[in-house]
Amino acid sequence: MLDTTGANPFALSYNKLMDVALLLRKYLPHMVSFGMFARVTDITPKTVEELKNLHHLKLDSINIGIETAHDPTLERMSKGYYAFDILEQLSKLDEAGIRYNVFYLNGLGGKGNGVASAIATADVFNQLHPCIINIVSLTIFPESQLYQEVINGTYVEEPEIERLMEMRTLIDRLNIRVNLLGHHVSNTVPITGALPDDKAAILREFDKAITKFPEKELKAYRSRIWHL
Question: What's domain 2-223's architecture?
Answer without folding.
Answer: Alpha-Beta Horseshoe (3.80)
